[in-house]
User: Which sequence fits this backbone?
């Protein structure tokens, strides 16, 4: 009788210690998970911020200004655009190119 | 007895008999002690359990708010028009602030405010809380955090960023510091954009780390992303052209609306003067107002196609019917209506082409007022446009029973009633969409709109032909022509009311309109332009507003990938016929 009690006592102590260990481990892991989640949120916000920043660098207003002032570009008009349609016969001769100006 | 000989065990004190009450007393005291403990335990565990539970929780349990991000506003191609970015607010507890040498100057420089103002804020020792600056940029906030000043703290906040700036300001609107919409789409769709914040309960350890979730987590519901029908490129170009026109014509203001003629989507809606949504310190009402939707005026000649359309529809006239407009004026119940130039005999087509008031009046007087009122109402005049936007106005179209004959005449060419530019543009869908008026929307939609018939398809086609003539050589708006695309449209030059009348010569104020569509045979877009009080010499709609129309149409159709429907030839420069008011 006494022996069984002793074994049970040992078992209880061991299981209690194990429980403490597991609880500690679980809290540690949870903290890590929580931190990772916070990081994910932070990165997501950062991603959103950078997307906006990227968009700001590429707005029509800025592109237009840079193209005009820095690259000396001008707007296309249909007068200097060749429209190629699928059914149109191919004309390979480069000499004919100026004649192709305009809509077809 | 020697010292060594002492026998402690035989101490007479020990030998004396202990009285029994003493041991009983000790046992009693100990028993009482235990009883006390049991009672206390019972008190804590049973009687006052709730209180202690709560006190315990206060010490380790925390509720954490899970903020919901405000949804983004996107254009039709998914480009960002408005989005929330982190912008921490800096606050301080003035009595705790300890600044090292030079830190004040550093901080002031980072915050972009004078050092004197900053130190005044931080010296107010009576307060235990003071905002130093709200919503600073994320990287500046980081630099401030790196300064590591005691007593200065940051609060996580978000602010809206609008990459398109002033070009799209009137459409998108803005939010206040509390992230609530104040204007435009931000206000109208505030609920959808807001989302719902969540909440979680956790146990925190000594170091403030969450170690365990308690109970249920309420997940945050992020705000819905909103995709508008606006095309940011079209929007930008429309705004740019409008701004240039307003500035070069010394006008007070202007608006432009671009509508997809097939789906009813608003591709662009811009006003000038505008504002930068991020910098709203010195905002005036004139900048803030979305004129295209909230301001109504007498449209003038832009209304004529509806009068003529009704006459065609009811079979009273044909496009080739001759109307005699000589001698350039007509008198109705004592009041005389003039054309700016006498034209003589005109066909109905030419009445629209040269914009004759007399011709339109003569056509209108053949029809009962009730029919005109009905057609105009069906075309959306005097009705609030069904569009999701704050402050939309209905304009004014009085009930026909109160029309006097002279009023019926003036209404036929756009005086004595009022409409906003947006209403005008939408009403022109009647001509572009086979005689049907279609609902306009600010949200992206891919299905063709279902319209309500006003005119028959044939009438719409006839009017389109007249609009093309009006925008061609010999018309009032040849400057509306584009390279490669056939256009049709009607210019309007309306006197503005000055006091009780329309001003006297030399003191008149004008409002110039142009509303039209392109390509004319199968309209893809409808563009409306309005300039308020152009005062640099030119004021005819065909001179002032039509070039904006032309540029906008040219750019928009090219960006939509519409193939030119005309042979390309050098820009047409034709003589403008001065129209009537």
Assistant:
């Amino acid at each position: 009788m006494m022996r069984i009690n002793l074994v049970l006592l040992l078992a209880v102590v061991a299981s209690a210690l194990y429980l403490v260990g597991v609880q500690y481990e679980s809290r540690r892991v949870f903290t890590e998970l929580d931190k990772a989640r916070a990081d994910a949120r932070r990165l997501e916000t950062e991603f959103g911020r950078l997307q906006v920043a990227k968009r700001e660098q590429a707005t029509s207003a800025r592109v237009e200004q840079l193209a005009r002032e820095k690259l000396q570009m001008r707007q296309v008009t249909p007068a200097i655009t060749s429209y190629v349609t699928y059914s149109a016969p191919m004309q390979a001769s480069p000499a004919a190119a100026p004649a192709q100006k305009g809509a077809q | 007895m020697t010292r060594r000989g002492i026998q402690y065990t035989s101490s007479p004190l020990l030998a004396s008999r202990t009285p029994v009450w003493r041991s009983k007393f000790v046992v009693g005291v100990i028993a009482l002690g235990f009883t006390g403990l049991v009672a206390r335990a019972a008190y804590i565990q049973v009687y006052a359990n709730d209180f202690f539970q709560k006190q315990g929780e206060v010490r380790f349990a925390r509720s954490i708010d899970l903020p919901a991000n405000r949804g983004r506003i996107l254009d039709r191609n998914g480009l960002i028009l408005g989005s929330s970015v982190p912008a921490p607010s800096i606050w301080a507890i003035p009595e705790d602030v300890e600044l090292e040498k030079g830190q004040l100057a550093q901080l002031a420089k980072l915050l972009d405010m004078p050092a004197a103002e900053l130190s005044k804020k931080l010296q107010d020792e009576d307060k235990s809380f003071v905002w130093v600056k709200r919503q600073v940029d994320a990287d500046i906030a980081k630099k401030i955090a790196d300064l590591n000043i005691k007593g200065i703290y940051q609060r996580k906040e978000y602010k809206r960023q609008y990459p398109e700036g002033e070009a799209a300001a009137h459409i998108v609107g803005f939010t206040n510091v509390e992230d609530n919409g104040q204007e435009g789409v931000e206000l109208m769709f505030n609920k959808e954009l807001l989302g719902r914040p969540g909440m979680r309960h956790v146990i925190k350890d000594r170091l403030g780390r969450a170690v365990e979730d308690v109970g249920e987590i309420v997940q945050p519901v992020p705000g819905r992303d909103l995709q508008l029908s606006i095309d940011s490129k079209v929007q930008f170009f429309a705004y740019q052209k409008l701004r240039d026109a307003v500035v070069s014509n010394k006008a007070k203001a202007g608006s432009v609306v671009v509508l997809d003629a097939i789906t009813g989507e608003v591709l662009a809606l811009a006003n000038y003067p505008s504002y930068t949504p991020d910098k709203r310190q010195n905002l005036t009402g004139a900048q803030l107002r979305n004129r295209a939707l909230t301001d109504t005026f007498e449209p003038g000649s832009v209304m004529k196609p509806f009068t003529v359309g009704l006459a065609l529809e009811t079979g009273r006239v044909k496009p080739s019917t001759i109307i005699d407009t000589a001698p350039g004026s007509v008198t109705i119940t004592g009041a005389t209506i003039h054309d700016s130039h006498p034209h003589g005999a005109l066909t109905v087509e030419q009445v629209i082409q040269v914009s004759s008031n007399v011709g339109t009046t003569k056509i209108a007087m053949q029809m009962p007022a009730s029919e005109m009122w009905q057609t105009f109402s069906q075309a959306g005049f005097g009705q609030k446009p069904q569009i999701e936007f704050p402050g939309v106005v209905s304009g004014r179209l009085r009930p026909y029973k109160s029309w006097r004959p002279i009023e019926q005449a003036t209404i036929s060419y756009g005086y004595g009633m009022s409409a906003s530019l947006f209403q005008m543009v939408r009403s022109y869908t009647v001509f572009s969409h086979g005689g049907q008026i279609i609902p306009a929307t600010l949200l992206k939609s891919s299905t063709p709109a279902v319209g309500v018939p006003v005119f028959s398809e044939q009438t719409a086609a006839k009017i389109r032909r007249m609009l093309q003539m009006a925008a061609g050589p010999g018309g009032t708006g040849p400057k509306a022509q584009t390279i490669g695309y056939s256009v049709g449209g009607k210019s309007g030059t309306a006197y503005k009311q000055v006091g009780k009348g329309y001003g006297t010569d030399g003191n008149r104020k004008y409002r110039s309109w142009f509303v039209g569509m392109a390509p004319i045979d199968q309209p893809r877009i409808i563009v409306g332009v309005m300039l308020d009080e152009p005062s640099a010499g030119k004021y005819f709609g065909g001179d002032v507003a039509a070039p904006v129309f032309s540029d906008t149409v040219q750019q928009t159709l090219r960006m939509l990938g519409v193939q030119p429907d005309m042979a390309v030839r050098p820009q047409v420069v034709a003589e403008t016929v001065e129209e009537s008011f």
Summary: The radius of gyration of chain A is 37 Å. Residues 92-104 of chain A have pLDDT under 50 and may be disordered. The CA atoms of residues 17 and 81 of chain A lie 82 Å apart.
